[in-house]
């Protein structure tokens, strides 16, 4: 049936509005109709459907775009990537407008609630101002908008189930009749240290966090976020670029270990009461490179540089300590195995699943297996012999523990005064079993 030209023109202008600022985007009504039509095209060839007419082809492409955002809630990294793709001002304005259309369409088309939540999170990442927005009745379950200014936003009747509004400003916001089940409000907790936080660790049960600064260390209850504090007996050197700090919970979070590279002792503290229950002294050491526990928490591993009369040159000592509990259920530590190796170990890493230790010794990285501390000679990594001046800044096993990641700083051979503080950072990866080396990236650092 043919429609009178004036009626046909009115429908066309309602659906395909001519927007001078954003002519490529269909109106909200067009997208709503397109979503309904698209449901019935699932059993047909959508490619054929796109040939109906040029305007409907554009519409279907936009609906397909919405469907892509409606599959699942995007991770923080994915949201950041999406927002990063909108750096050009003209493109950003168009996309922000379109994301707002998605959000407002969710009022009547609840099946795009995931797309609406993703749209809001991307808008937030593009620094879009939500102040005074009309979001009545929108469907955005699970949306993450922590630390967002939402002053005067009208959320009345909206479905915000499972949303994260932690740390948000909600002055004069309207939430009447909104679905707020499992929503997160409140302020974000902070570690109120007086100085820079130098190390921290979380207990396996997630109930406690231990942290340390230059003068004090703290244990935080992560339910109440109240802290207990102890003053360090030996103040740490804030200007040392080699000192490491060791904190590790064990025995279901009831105790934790505390030490640092230049101390000759390891303290054992009871978590809840923050009282020291034992102290282990490591004689004649100048530097502790590693302090960690095996996966079953029955063995403590220390790697330290020795300095005593027995050795004319400094050497590295690997020690295994057995952890037992006495009648009062307090941890007792006994040395069970020691291995002395040549060279100075300033960096070390441990792979708990495979029980392998990696140690940077002079111009190579050696690997030792537990419990016998036998060297795995065929795994030795020798990429550093060609480097004139370098320092291994860090190394860590990948989660699968099949590769070791190594970051080194190198200085240039010719160093005029204006370039004497310039370094290059190189990151290697070393597959121990197939003995393949790879480079991740090279970065200049001033």
TrEMBL record:
The lineage of its organism: Bacteria, Pseudomonadati, Chlamydiota, Chlamydiia, Parachlamydiales. This is F-box domain-containing protein. Residues 29-69 form the F-box domain. InterPro entries: 5peptide_repeat, F-box-like_dom_sf, F-box_dom, WD40/YVTN_repeat-like_dom_sf, WD40_repeat_dom_sf. SUPFAM superfamilies: F-box domain, Pentapeptide repeat-like, WD40 repeat-like. SMART domains: FBOX (SM00256). Pfam families: F-box (PF00646), Pentapeptide (PF00805).
